[in-house]
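TICKET #2291
ISSUE: user wants both folds in one file
ATTACHMENT 1:
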Amino acid sequence: MIIHLLLFVFQCQLGSCFSRETKINISVSKLKFTKMLLNKLSCVQTNIIFNLCQKKICSTFVRMQSVKAQEMPNKLDNPEIQIDSANEMVTDIYPAPRVVPMVLSRTNTEVLSFDHVPGPKALKYFSNLRQYSFQIGTQLTAGFLTLAFNISNYINLKNPFTNMSALFDEYGPVVRFVSPVGADIVFVNHPEHIQKVFSMEGEYPVRSALDSLDKYRVEKNSILGLYSIKGEDWAHRRSQVCAPLHTTVSQNMQSLKDVCDVLSRKIYTQRNHQDELKTDLYKELHKWTYDCMGLILFAQKFNMLETEIIYNQNDVSWLYNSLEKATDAIIKCESGFHMWKLFSTPAWYSLRKHCDIIDSLIGKHVLQAREACSGDDSFKKVRHILGMESVATAMIVEQPLNVEDVATVLMDMLLIGVNTISSSTSFLLYYLAKHQRAQNILMQEVDALVTSSMTSVQTLKDNTPYLQACIKETLRMVPPMPIVSRILPKNIILDKYNIPKGTLIIMANQDTCRKESNFDDADRFYPERWLKEESRDYHAFASIPFGYGARKCLGQSMAEAMMSLLTVQILKKFKLEYHYGDIKPTKQFISKPNKPLKIRFVDRNN
């Protein structure tokens, strides 16, 4: 019986090769014999045989899937071949899995794999080696890129922004660096792509950490700081710091203004015959930021602006000196090849030494704050109402934490805050000195400002719209951190490329801010762009100096308040001038001026 069935199928297959007349002349005896066999089979077998025959005859048959039972078409592609109407509907015993077609949008008609992302091809030749040293490879690739960009800065001193721009000009808005021995790195600079990355960062965003600082804390069995900690621990720690920080800034507005007055008096008394500061202006701004942070974090007057003694003679000077040395060591460790992961390097030794000093000195201040709050509850409440507190005090009283945890959080805030705020303030004064038209407009706003308008952060911002536009334009021209990174928990499609989860995505914030496609006259300092109606047309993610989302910079209000207060105090006394070559930001972890700030502070004739 099986042999006869196979003969029948074979004849049906051959029948598709003959003409219609030939198929009609099939012998009657064959048909009768087939009918007899079919009658002996079950209904299930009959359906299977007919399905098999029809699939052999109709080579171009297309099965249409739906939620209902499978249906056979009424007509085949070949008009000469017809199926009997009695057998028009055939039900499969073992229906094929339902295939739901992927619906693509009109603008994104095709999704390309990760391998299609363009980038330098030289690195791909060595990608087969990544299985041998995966962990070190990512850092080696990142170090190689950082070292390459730094070298290119020295070669192309005229315009260092072209280094990153040339990368995107060559390969497009999405660039992939294939690591020979580690995870790949993807660069993006389009605002829509940046927005999409932030929208998919999840509840607990992950970014690339400062590996050198993390290693230091792991070796000390300490918790990670706010910059590096992840997951629920990060969310909990951030909630403990956010509210006290904003409250403390508002409560210390008058004290911050006093520190700004100290710097303006120092500028007045220590100018040379060209009205330039005898000492390094950037270093003085660094000390000013350090003194302001001392008020906010510890409620203590560090008075570093008025201290001109050997560093190791008091705790305040010692802490400041260690902060400078630790910052330099972190920059060296995070730049270039991370050889300190394999063996101790001079930079790694300096980092450990000075971070130990910072940790011990901050711990000392935290202990003093805890002792000051060791009284009864009524004293704590009165102290809180009167505003006689700092971030350290608030974390101890409202969110009971041990000394080591508080010291770690405050250490991160000092390392990041002092350097970013002093850098941004330096470029703000530089751009105002270089663009006299903007400075004259700002002077008029400052002269009309009354003292009562400086009692709170929000009141100050509301009464100085042009100053806020100048600050915003400065941060657009030179973001304190030139890149922002994220590691997403799921795949993402950027410019039709499927980027797998876990890939390090670096958003070139500085390059995005300088694109003509994002801002008209992007290389021009023009604060008015933020005051016009056209500013609404700017993409919200074309300039994000403080980041975005859950992991947005905690110190935004603090930075804006400090920069506003100092600018007001300086412009009330001086007219700023600059007569030297252009100053550019360095390509480091935190941008800073690449040459001395020789700004002239000319007395105003009020």
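ATTACHMENT 2:
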Amino acid sequence: MGLRLRLRLPHKSSPRTPSYLLLCVLALSFFSFTALLLYKVDDFVAQTKTLAGHNLEPTPWHIFPRKSFNEATKRSQAYRILQCSYFSCPYNSEPKRLLSNSGSGRRTQQPQCPDVFRWIHRDLEPWAKTGVTKEHVKKAKANAAFRVVILSGKLYVDLYYACVQSRMMFTIWGILQLLNKYPGMVPDVDMMFDCMDKPIINRTEHQSFPAPLFRYCTNEAHLDIPFPDWSFWGWSETNLRPWEEEFRDIKQGSRRSSWDNKQPRAYWKGNPDVVSPIRMELMKCNHPRLWGAQIMRQNWEEEAKGGYEQSKLSNQCNHRYKIYAEGYAWSVSLKYILSCGSMTLIISPEYEDFFSRGLIPKENYWPVSPTDLCRSIKFAVDWGNANPSDAETIGKRGQGYMESISMNRVYDYMFHLITEYSKLQKFKPEKPSSAKEVCEGSLLCFAEQKERELLERSRVVPSLDRPCKLPDADRSRLERLIQQKKKTIEDVRYMEMTRTKTGSR
């Protein structure tokens, strides 16, 4: 027994195989590292500033929530962000240069730009005397979502906070296409952009030292500089294609029925739940017999599930009259509504984008009063049905106006706006230290499949023609146009009042 004990003691006192303890330590370390990594990935996806926009926290004053990710998506997204953040635009690629006239086939055509281009001069008037200084740009940064710097034909972007959905991505893509279309012609420039709906640079408050901030709309009370909106290159979240594709299909859809066969009512379909008193009031007008209007609430959640098959714009041109009502602010829907060729009923808008200022009441749209909305719509419908030829002409002119706002003209507007703005700069633009160069490859790297498809379909090639010729500044001409519009709208209001008094007798 003693021998047996002595034999066992060495065996019992000898150390166990260390692999078990090591495996436990390694497993514990692995799980701890994994947990830390997942936390860091989550934080990385949330905080990293990218062109995709939805990787950031929601914008400071917008109700749209931040996009949610599960763990697998987070890891995939983090990998993509890391990959794309360090995607280098080719170092050996020089910016495209302007094609010379000799041997290139470049034509020297330079048609006159549409008259609405004159507004570029007016939009930049606040800086005509002082110019745009570094201090101006620094002040604009306080309300900017991103900064665009163009140097020798290369694009640099500094991101500050997320834009709603894919607005930032498609806007920046549009600027890249401008550089492709007019290589070597776009001047060096330093611009601050915001991507929210409402203008913010109050004219009265900022008159002494206004901040030059670009956005998609403006109005008389503000100094924000209107720039073509992202949807001209597509709106992936609502399945809208690039502008020229959509316009072509809408125009074709408008021809399926003659004017006589179109429904003699006013039509609106959209989302009233966007903090829009006008749209909420419009819902009360949904009575074809009483008000001559068919008002439909759009269920975006259900439409998204069905791939927006029930929302095709080319299928919504079956009425003689279509209504435009602003949402939270201006709405991209205006260009699609006008494209139908129906007589567009525009409820007195508070905001305007770069092209809507060229619309003229009773020529290419019919003005509707917001104060007695349903009766005003009814009057427009009755007038149109009593004057079908005139109503059809107004509708066709509205469609023709939108056809004139081709992508060539959109790029020309961007070109002249940037060029005139650059002339006001009192400093030499430089690349901000935190800005990154953006090229087509780096931007497409961030894009999801649907976004990438739309972006690639809106590519452009270098133009053989020069941009259209910018009209000279003519403030008095614009003032006359503004007064003419007001007078026409007052005349329509008088017609409505006269009709109301006559009908009440």
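RESOLUTION: both attachments delivered.
EXTRA DETAIL ON ATTACHMENT 2: Residues 115 and 488 are 19 Å apart (CA to CA).
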